[in-house]
Write a structure and sequence with these properties.
The chain is mainly β and 347 residues long.
């Protein structure tokens, strides 16, 4: 899932749908071709192509103008898991990560493999452009020559790569960032250029750039955390994963603010669109959650009221059962109490 021109998002399964009404779910355009599941989507820097990574080990592309398939990018030997695009030295580049533990840099226009990067020992799960080295508008206008990309893997390592159209190399190859116990599923930079991570160890962490990408905030989400997003305006961090819930946290203190419920299968992605968080899950739904402070407070208050009402109903049922002499309510009838007393006296 990824944003296009607001408030549009792209959702992928075995076809790609442009969903232009994030409140209504109205569908705009469908791109077809892959017969295996699609895992990731990206838009070329010139805005003319849609690209999609697939379980068939290739990357598909289509023209936005006529929705016709264009080039296919072949080179990975296992599922393609993540994509990103950038423009360096007047060349549109595609970077892909796959379950084969490799990262490939491609020329988007020709589908030529420019660089193959190795360093991880297990599959690549996510890629993120370092905003300190690349800005999608300014860098293109200034003709930037290189950028740094962060990669996350199921080997629990986060690695950095310096890439250009001419060459690519790992940054501090012997010093991967190790802050999680197991797989790192998601990487997201915030407006302060600090790095947020989501891991199968049940935590989300904010890695401080000024402290060498050491954790300065750790959020205990619980269970696998598949995605994290940051709401700059509201001061929230949002996490989701196998627990199916969307958890909203105070990004400064790490305190839980509210839990949104709605998905009934694992949540695999989160995306911020202005004051809204968009989530996608294995239940084949895309859902939207308001992060306006007043809406979060109202949702939390309603949930607390519903929980209190449920407890009161439960207490009422137990009281009625006890009054009727129902031992399933956890008490003894008068006759049962007398019999128990007699047995104890006999002992």
């Amino acid at each position: 899932m990824m944003p296009c021109s607001l408030p549009k998002v792209w959702a992928a399964s075995e076809e790609l749908r442009s969903i232009i009404g994030v409140k209504t779910g109205e569908k705009d355009t469908i791109f077809r071709g892959p017969t295996a599941p699609v895992t990731s989507v990206a838009v070329s820097p010139d805005g003319k192509r849609l690209l999609a990574g697939c379980w068939d080990k290739t990357i598909w592309s289509w023209s936005f103008q006529n929705r016709q398939p264009l080039l296919r990018y072949r080179g990975h030997t296992d599922f393609v898991k993540c994509l990103l695009t950038l423009k360096l030295s007047e060349t549109d580049l595609l970077v892909s990560g796959a379950a084969d533990a490799s990262i490939i840099v491609w020329n988007i226009q020709t589908a030529e493999k420019l660089h193959v990067l190795k360093g991880h020992s297990r599959g690549i799960l996510d890629l993120a452009l370092d905003p300190a080295t690349y800005h999608p508008v300014i860098s293109i206008l200034e003709g930037s020559q290189e950028a740094i990309i962060f990669s996350a893997s199921s080997d629990r390592e986060i690695r950095r790569w310096r890439i250009s159209a001419e060459k690519a190399e790992q940054v501090e190859a012997g010093k991967p960032i190790l802050v999680h116990e197991t797989s790192v599923y998601c990487l997201r930079f915030d407006a302060d250029e600090d790095l947020w991570t989501a891991s199968a160890d049940g935590t989300t962490k904010c890695l401080s750039r000024s402290h060498g990408f050491k954790p300065d905030t750790t959020i205990q989400h619980g269970d696998y955390v598949r995605a994290v997003a940051v709401d700059e305006a509201g001061g929230f961090a949002i996490t989701a994963g196998r627990s199916e819930d969307i958890k909203v946290w105070d990004r400064g203190s790490g305190d839980l603010v509210h839990v949104y419920e709605g998905h009934y299968e694992e949540v695999t992605g989160l995306l911020m669109l202005e004051h809204r968080c968009v989530s996608v899950g294995i239940d084949a739904t895309v859902r939207v959650w308001s992060l306006k402070s007043e809406d979060v407070r109202a949702a939390r208050s309603k949930k607390e009221e519903d929980q209190k009402a449920l407890l009161l109903r439960g207490d009422g049922i137990r009281s009625e059962s006890t009054a009727a002499g129902d031992d399933s309510a956890g008490g003894l009838t008068e006759e049962e109490a007398r019999e128990l007393e007699e047995l104890m006296q006999d002992d």
